[in-house]
Amino acid sequence: MIQVIAFDLDDTLWSIGPIIFNAEKRLNDWLQHEVPQLLYDVDSMRTLRHELLELEPDLGNKITEFRRRLIERALLLSQISMDEAAELSHQAMNIFLEARNEIMFFDGALETLSLLSNQFTLGALTNGNADIQKIGLDSYFSFAFSAEEVGAPKPADNLFRRALTHTNTRPQQMLYVGDNPVLDIDAANRIGMHTVWVQHPGQHNTGETIADEKIEHIRQLPQAVERILSRFSADHVGQ
Known about the structure:
Elements: E1 4-7, H1 16-34, H2 42-45, H3 49-55, H4 63-77, H5 82-100, H6 109-117, E2 121-126, H7 132-135, E3 141-146, H8 147-150, H9 158-167, E4 174-178, H10 181-191, E5 194-198, E6 213-215, H11 221-237
Parallel strand pairs: 1-2, 1-4, 2-3, 4-5, 5-6
């Protein structure tokens, strides 16, 4: 029987594109105001990504620190001192993260979480760097783990294993909800979890497996969970 429902966050509970666009604009405005001598803007900093990853490959699994170090490198290349570049890059990331956590939820998402939290333990497993406390999801979620925290992004199984250990549950007792067929559905299916795929308009299944349920909107999740539970109960009655 399902006891825990874990969620992907970006593009599952909200649309991430507009959020990152706004966060990068705010970051760029701040940098231009605070460091007018900076030779890079947010767009041109991307040219430094490959160089930085070659120097420090481990940063590829640390998206927050990677962005900060990217800013720091751009500052250093603009003849900013090491100490000042470090301080400014931390301030810049605070600006970015503040905007990154200004979320506009999909319609019905919070109502869905509220309803499900009455019956299940809820949590978040994300490759991103949203902060559930800043967003206000800590009133629904009893746990949240990021790829940066566990050392590897989905589709690696680190996040899923951490959630199973944390909740002391077996894979078949956990349901995972996500929008990405490969990173979310394939990864959770391989471990043996139940899965629900939130399919966005025009999105195709590029994965190798099929979710237990497919929905087009997060507000349809409670009904999908009920269908999974009904099939689970029917299977056990027939055994």
